[in-house]
Design a protein that fits this description.
mainly alpha; 64% helix; homodimer; 15 helices; 278 residues
Chain lengths: 278, 278
């Protein structure tokens, strides 16, 4: 089963949303109001061109912008912005260099101001829930979109710089600046696991959520809930909570651990590249 | 939301399997043993190159062979052979001519011996459940794969001829030779319907199954069951059966109305091309 890197990236997007249960996420059994399974399918279809650009060695910022534009061509709003932020450098690294923590880490470090401009332009296509930036970054609030580009240019802010500034709060940015440690670790665990891939994706998601609080939950519903979600994922791993029941409850309460889903998707991609059979 | 024809073809494959409930098919809530939701996702990813060839005007047989080869790169076996048989001429017609019953019907009529050779080669990649051919077609049993090509060539059998010979027994072949009447009719009903696309796909599937016995069910589990399935789909439309319960029962009994799913997929493609919003 040889599949090109861009196709594996797209398949990872699909396998991620099909991973069931992933408490709080859209999965095979659950939708959020206005954000449904079918929006993720259309988002994955739309992302293909940007992933293809990454595989052909395009600049990370350009490929990301194109992927997000394509992803946004559905009615559900933001489905896979965070997944694509992780997938684009991983796909590029797999296709034009090698797929290792060191190689993708170097690729991220080498990003330029042009890459951060692409990243900011991507916010023009879709509403992404974000925190207020730290005070010294106020001019570079991502919600300014392309309007921030003159400031980026003036200050010489690369995409790596942008990620570094958010790494403490944002789990995806942290993967970016640290060489994707959780992604590569979970990929190996997915490969060692057995059974249907959608079950493995569910287990990877639960391990990741039990390991660290989800930044998207903290941002959207607050610190207290983020702590609770983290603890209850640990209770699932300990066998004290049923993940299906938890999934029902979280969806009902509007709790969506999006960052954890993003890392799960990235790990599925690495696992596919390393021979995960579907 | 502009999406190219090949992307809409791929999205139709995904929306079809996500349509739930589709009694007897793999859907969001149900898998068959060894044939799971994730295999359909990987099949749709793999089909992209062949659908892209069709959109660029490649010969129907070549595009179909490439689509089936890509689709077959997953562990579930035959996921979408029948869907692709319908999608390839539809995608080609949409991209290079127009998407109408007349245009796609003409395209099918104009297929050549080279197209039937591509169709026969496609059987080399995946095990497809088929009936024994009529006696006069024994040399052209599709299970012979590429070995049948000398006979095809000698007798000048086009792909249209192959479909015509099977049209009485096989619902997909009948769509091919009649200008896709059920496909175009259901596309309009899907467009007029409302709510999530996965619900519309489920309703389209049930209407199609209630309209006509499924040839794949007849072939795999016999005439009696095919009649029962058809009658019970009518009972669902009349409100006398619960489609979710029926879906559980059919999957348990190994009843999989595959031809009806194929036409549902083709109708979703036409609806997407005509503006169905996801």
């Amino acid at each position: 089963m040889t599949r090109e890197a861009a196709a594996n990236g797209q398949l990872a997007l699909l396998l991620e949303v099909a991973g069931t249960p992933k408490p709080g996420n859209v999965d095979r059994h659950r939708d959020h109001a206005g954000l449904r399974f079918e929006h993720f399918l259309a988002g994955a279809i739309g992302a293909r061109k940007g992933l293809g650009m990454a595989a052909r060695g395009a600049a990370v910022g350009d490929a990301f912008e194109r992927a997000v534009y394509g992803m946004s061509q559905q009615e559900g709003g933001n489905t896979q912005f965070g997944c694509l932020l992780l997938l684009v450098p991983l796909v590029r690294s797999a296709a034009v260099a090698e797929l290792s923590s060191q190689a993708v880490g170097a690729l991220c470090e080498e990003t330029t101001v042009a890459d951060s401009a692409g990243f900011y332009r991507a916010f023009e296509y879709v509403d992404v829930a974000v925190d207020d930036p730290p005070e010294e970054m106020a001019d570079l609030d991502v919600r300014r979109g392309a309007d921030a580009i003159p400031t980026l240019t003036e200050r010489g802010v690369t995409l790596y710089d942008v990620m570094e500034a958010s790494a403490e709060r944002d789990g995806n940015a942290r993967e970016w600046v640290e060489g994707f440690p959780r992604t590569f670790r979970e990929a190996e665990l997915i490969l060692k696991d057995d059974g249907p891939v959608s079950d493995r994706a569910s287990r990877a998601f639960l391990r990741l959520l039990a390991e660290r609080e989800d930044g998207f939950v903290r941002m959207t519903v607050g610190q207290e809930v983020a702590t609770e979600v983290h603890e209850r994922a640990n209770a699932v791993l300990a066998g004290d909570e049923n993940p299906e029941t938890l999934a029902e409850e979280f969806v009902e309460r509007g709790i969506n651990p999006g960052t954890t889903a993003d890392v799960t998707c990235a790990a599925l991609f690495v696992a596919l590249q390393r021979g995960l059979s579907v």
